[in-house]
Amino acid sequence: MLQKISKNITWVGKTDWNLKKFHGHEFSTFKGTTYNSYLIRDEKTALIDTVWKPYAKEFVENLKNEIDIDEIDYIIINHAEIDHSGALPELMELIPDKPIYCTQNCISSLKGHYHKDWNFVQVETGQKLSLGKKELIFIEAMMLHWPDSMFCYLTGNNILFSSDAFGQHYASECLFNDLVDKCELSIEAIKYYANILTPFSRLVAQKIDELIGLKLPLDMICPSHGIIWRDEPMQIVNKYLEWAGDYQEEQILILYDTMWNGTGLLAESIKDGLKEELDESCAVKILNTSTIDKSEIITEVFKSKMVLFGSPTVNSGILSSMASIFELIKGLRFKGKKAAAFGCFGWSGESIEILNSLIKEAGFELIDNGYSCLWEPDDMTLKQVRKYAKKYIPGGG
Ligand code: FEO
Questions:
Q1: Looking at ligand 1, which atom is closest to the CA of residue 225?
Q2: Residue 57 burial (CB < 10 Å; 0-12/13-18/19+)?
Q3: For 106-150, what is each residue's pLDDT tens digit?
């Protein structure tokens, strides 16, 4: 349902309650998502972004109910990814000559996606577009999270349209942060950052510094997904600054996969050893990489100061779920985290060496050569592992 977010701005996006996977099957979206698009009316009318392609017809029909499409003067595309530009072809069929304001990289991306030579107007940071009484100020946001990404700021309403930054995959008919469950919102916001923005943390911090330096009054942040930050919008900006600073909590994560539960028993004993050594302010979590959702695992890695990776040796390698999670972890380029490996083996025992190598390749600090166990651990071995685990804590053991 279209909703006004202020007298002159209507949210014309799509709430996708049923979406459970995003970016193919890479990112779980248990709470659905929204594709936010905004229609700004002044003496001129501007449309910011569209929605994902499957909802293109619905989007254009809704727009037609809201406005005579010919009355749209400007289209602003903050980001070319399909979830925001997917309805452009449908829209441009009706208004083929209307100008599309976006970055140079966005023009390349849109041409690459849709193979159309629309009326593109390239914009750069600091350029302004007058809508009458108010104006849009463009702020390039390269690699947050694509080369084409851009923010724009609406004077008068004091709104930052922030593209994917500050977003969440969180469907709700309540558009504003003061109207939704704060815990759910917070969980989805950190999951979004951990899985999408982590590799670009240095740029996130720089961009926020740049925005703060502009000294623009801020009444709302309108991202491209999820809830609009209306109540204390700086709260999410401050969270982003915290997350961009090699974030970690008092948490140790044990990630493992297991065939006949030998490595699973090691994981449990490591957890017990750590809990005996740590004070209760430090959380210890155990997740099985073959059963727990990978985006949830990434969020827990993001929050952890240390990750202990366990896999038995199989076919001279490691279990596939562990190899797969490392592929994600490597790409996200976490910083400032410690790690070590453990696992059972029957004869050749390569898993520890492979895990150690993956740990280093992923940019973690390898704090130990790893703990391996021949065949199934017996009670004596499990006691030994509990003791061994204490070595992972500075001053422990
Ligand atoms: Fe929501 Fe980068 O697209």
A1: 1
A2: exposed
A3: 999 999 999 999 999 999 999 999 999 999 999 999 999 999 999
